Amino acid sequence: MSEFTGGSSAPREYVVPAGTARGDGYELEITPKTAGWEHSSLRVLALGSGGSRVVDTGDEEMFLVPLSGSATVTLGEQTHELAGRSGVFEGPTDFSYLPVHSAVTVASATGGRFALCGARTAVELPFRRGDRAEVPVELRGSGQSTRQVRNFGAAGVFEAASAICVEVITPGGNWSSYPAHKHDEAGPHECELEEIYYFEIAPGPAGQPGLGFHRTSSSPGHEIDITVEVHDRDTVLVPWGWHGPCAAAPGHDMYYLNVMAGPGDERAWKITDHPDQAWVRDTWADQAIDSRLTGNGGQ
Question: The domain at 3-283 falls in which architecture?
Answer without folding.
Answer: Sandwich (2.60)
